[in-house]
Design brief:
Layout: H1 12-22, H2 27-38, H3 44-51, H4 59-69, H5 73-113, H6 135-148, H7 155-175, H8 180-203, H9 207-223, H10 227-244, H11 249-258, H12 266-282, H13 286-300, H14 317-330, H15 334-345, H16 353-369, H17 373-387, H18 393-396
């Protein structure tokens, strides 16, 4: 909105922009003309801020503008008044939108958790300790509900819940009596729950705890004879190695991808190829990263024989695009990073605040590499807004550290989806 429907007044920003462009002048040229009128310099940035309503011209500036454009000062005063009113309305609208986002985030969290308490692992152990063949399927549905909490909550909110679930299921498997097939199903559930617990531990900075859970997941997935879960466990370990500065990230990620057979779901192949690409990108191996990204892109557009496992439910073309952008940002190739990140982020809802904040931090870094400092800083401010109230050190890590300049883009930290969070 640039005009007031009641009196036809044009807001100051659009008015100044129209007058300037009608004379065929740039902002810098207008600033120079105004500088000459007042006898001391006026920066081009001042004109830019007037036109975007970031700042509004004071009475002295309005007098200069009136003389420069031949427009009555009263018209400029009314234009400033309208702009001030529009700014107040925009601020109110933003506040309403933020409240709506937080309301929806709370609703999403409650919805994801709905029904979790209906089936407890302990209730599935009968007095005779006989475990029925349908128990793994029941636990799988429960674990899927728990997994989706990670879409809206940080590891600080979910870790103890995931650990208790893992302990209950482990006791069920240790104390129950069941068939060999049911046993494999239970071990698969334990692997998934251990991956969830490991991810939540990682998310709060408990790296040793995460390693222990991932090793449990690796052993359980092998006992379940589930090569996809085994690959996912290895990929989690690869990511942890990178985070703590270990030297085995590429080795673990390569081993993860090598576990997959020809019948593996496309989403799983795309996920593990992406993880391998990330390890190569962080090692500076651009050709290897590019090849792995190509494998992931091809896999995600394939049609499988059926749905993939629930732990890979979030892997879709947008997530592959995010990782593509992140890899190129890590490799300091902003012209390849920025389009991929922007296209995917345009479809991200703010209720996925942690993910969006982390991915925006990479976009900010890519813009900084491209020399677009102001745009990078603006994106960083958005990262701060989205990170408020999240129980995750990774969203905190997206904020400047003590040694980082104020106003500089954030130091990127590992993100959830594109590098393997809720896949557990």
């Amino acid at each position: 909105m640039t005009t007031n429907e009641n009196d036809g007044v044009e807001a100051i920003g659009p008015l100044l922009r129209r007058l300037r462009m009608a004379g065929g002048r740039t902002q810098e040229e207008l600033a120079a003309a105004l500088s000459a009128r007042r006898g001391y310099p006026l920066e081009q940035g001042a004109v830019s801020r007037w036109e975007t309503h970031e700042r509004l011209p004071d009475p002295a500036s309005r007098a200069l503008l009136s003389a420069e454009f031949g427009v009555p000062e009263e018209e400029l005063r009314r234009a400033v008044t309208l702009a001030r009113r529009l700014r107040r309305q925009e601020k109110k609208d933003e506040t309403d939108q933020e409240n709506d986002v937080f309301d929806r985030r709370g609703f999403m969290t409650a919805s994801a958790g709905a029904g979790i308490a209906v089936i407890q692992p302990s209730s599935l152990l009968s007095s005779g300790r006989k475990i029925g063949a349908d128990v793994p399927k029941q636990l799988s549905h429960r674990t899927a509900r728990l997994r989706r909490l990670d879409d809206f909550m940080g590891g600080g909110d979910t870790y103890q819940m995931y650990v208790r679930e893992l302990e209950d299921t482990t006791r069920l498997a240790d104390e129950g009596v069941y068939s060999e097939a049911t046993g494999r199903g239970l071990r698969g559930i334990i692997a998934e729950q251990a991956q969830l617990a490991g991810w939540a531990a990682y998310d709060v900075g408990n790296y040793e705890g995460a390693r222990g859970h991932y090793m449990t997941a690796l052993a359980a997935s092998r006992a379940a004879d589930d090569t996809a879960l085994e690959g996912n466990s290895l990929a989690f370990l690869a990511y942890l190695e990178w985070a703590v500065g270990g030297g085995s990230g590429i080795r673990f990620a390569a081993a993860a991808y090598e576990t997959l057979g020809p019948g593996t779901a496309p989403s799983v192949r795309a996920l593990l190829a992406d993880r391998l690409a990330w390890q190569h990108a962080t090692a500076g191996n651009d050709r290897e990263a590019d090849y792995a990204l190509g494998v992931a892109e091809e896999a995600i557009h394939e049609h499988g024989d059926g749905p993939g496992p629930d732990w890979a439910y979030w892997v879709d073309p947008d997530e592959i695009a995010i990782m593509t952008g992140r890899c190129w940002a890590e490799l300091h190739r902003p012209l390849r990073a920025i389009p991929a990140l922007e296209e995917a982020l345009a479809r991200y809802d703010d209720t996925r605040a942690r993910d969006k904040a982390l991915y925006l931090s990479w976009l900010a870094s890519a813009y900084l590499d491209a020399g677009e400092v102001e745009h990078s800083t603006a994106i960083t401010a958005r990262v701060f807004d989205l990170s408020e109230g999240l129980a995750s050190i990774r969203s905190d890590g997206a904020r400047p550290s003590d040694g980082q300049a104020v106003g500089a883009p954030p130091v990127p930290r590992p993100g959830r989806r594109a590098t393997g969070a809720c896949e557990g």
